[in-house]
Request: fold
Amino acid sequence: MTLNYIWIGFFLVAMLVAIMRVMGYLFSGHLEPLLGYVFTTADRDVFIAIVESTFEMAKVSIDIAIYLIGVMTLWLGIMKIGEKGGAVSGLTRFVMPFFKKIFPELPDNHPAFGSMTMNICANMLGLDNAATPLGIKAMQELQEASPDKTKASDSQIMFIVLNTSGLTLIPVSVMAIRAAMGAANPADIFLPIMLTTFFSTMAGLLIVSAIQRINLFNRVVLAYIGGLSLLIGLIIWLFSSMASATIGVVSTFAGNLLLFLIIILFIFLAWRKKVNVYEEFIVGAKEGFGVAVKIIPFLVAMLVAIGVFRASGALDMLISAIAGIFGLFGVDTEFVGALPTAFMKPLSGSGARGMMIEAFNHYGVDSFVGRMAATFQGSTETTFYTIAVYYGAVGIRNTRYTVGCGLFADFTSVIAGIFIAGLFFG
Reply:
């Protein structure tokens, strides 16, 4: 329902702004001295621009979707190999001791541990199709352990916030869209997204743990968080000590090397388990084709709406207003063009994807704003969608403080994304 209102709002606001621009042009002699704004023929022809944008963005949508068919087919085939080869189950065994500490109300060997771990590991690897059913299964198992079936339990809240904070290892869809839009190196946002999601996940974990009074100062938790924090801190320190040109070269090399090593690891693990690697790739590739085709209507709907919003001048007004606010504090406002993607992400994944593509289209896919928008898009999950689907699956109405904690993690990802994208691409 939220996306319905957002989509309608794009058109209604565009209509109102366009009418104001036309009226301003007609009465420019009286309004220009008052507003300090010079009306031009662009204001007069705004409705022509709006209609032209609908055709242009529909074409852009299909161009992207056609390219996505190939890229999504490739990557979901690779992911299927990793799934069958045991990459997900290996990650499950690795994080299980940590999960036992942050879900203290669950007894040892509770079946929800396996489903939760598999869900989060699937999300980390970009296995969206596998992640959602595993997440729903985990919520159902957590519901069985909850004394109040209408109110979210502490474990359910922790699980959902960890989901919405979106720790990501392989941002497949973002890389695929950047490739479709002609990025020189679609994987150059790999490390920035990984670093940004680390901070959002840590923020979600810390705020929920504080509310639930979970002791994070025990050896197991400190070992996991400390080790990961040390690694992330080392990466940031290494890159912060490099020149801007060197950062681009090293991050591009490291990101692509790591991605290819993951592919090789997936193939090796599957081969070692005597999996028919080629056949499993074909199975996953078929799923990728289906995903790419299904996304076309959503892509067209959202990109056309955003195109209308941009052509009317409304989006530029919004960005200018935000830039003006930051400018009052002497802040560099170059990043402001990417903020619509960040603002949309908690509400709608497809809406945020559309905002990211619009930023690519307007500023350039390899521009600073374009890369920052990609970082925002890949850094968290869609908070309200995740809450609606997972709680809806088990009939929970009282979500308690889930939304607040999820949005706190989202806000952290925005702040971290601004600094990290500035470090890598500024």
Q: What stands out?
A: Residues 2-425 form one domain.
